[in-house]
Amino acid sequence: MCMEERSERRYGAALDHLRAAQKPSAGTPLYSRLVNRPLGRRFAAAAYVLGATPDGVTLVSAVCTFSGIALIALVPPVWWLGVLVSALLILGYALDSADGQLARLRGGGSVQGEWLDHTVDAAKVLTIHAAILISVFRFFELPAGWLLIPLAYLVVDSLLFFGMMERDLLLARAAGGRAPASEASTGVLRAILILPSDYGLFCLLFLLLGAPLLYFGVYALMLVCNTIFLLLALVKWYRQLGAHGR
């Protein structure tokens, strides 16, 4: 059997293993469920065949993501920039899914790898809205007050990320170190309703960058949706932690 055939077999076996060991889709927005996880699964299987490490995949994901973020701040908004930024962010997001799947495929990840993954995610949340703020200030013909929208979005996304990470940490500690149980609801309707909170949809938003006012209007609408989602999530998480505390 030639090397190419062996690689194909290893890739197919890795893909089958990842499909069987896929994390539950409960609470996962539609894009992440239908597009990002399957795409990340393929990247993880390919990385496994190539002998890559989860940390290496995380770093490649970071390069793609932060290259796209830098372009937002540095280049005037035109249609081709939107396509390029969206492609880089989507690729970075898929690789962000792949690193964890690769870790499971290799027998489990490390504490260092999990820390690196979450640190990159936190940096992404902070810098992407800062880049949008810079872009609006430099290239958009809007009153200065509109700059508050990226600032507000940065606060909302940061609170959402921190609140979710802290909730998972506290629930795991209450459960003796075990990961928190998945949510019961896995319906497609719920996945659609929480779609505005999906980072994958946010990546696709940049396809509108060539029409700056339309892009910024949809961005502002997503801020409203995510603010509502954050408020509902904070109430839910507070009640969850209270129940475990009792």
TrEMBL record:
Pfam family, one: CDP-OH_P_transf
Coiled-coil zones: none
TM stretches of this protein: 78-95, 146-166, 187-208, 214-238
One annotated GO biological process: phospholipid biosynthetic process
Keywords: Membrane, Transferase, Transmembrane, Transmembrane helix
Cellular component GO terms, alphabetical: membrane
Name of this protein: CDP-alcohol phosphatidyltransferase family protein
UniProt source species: Leucobacter triazinivorans
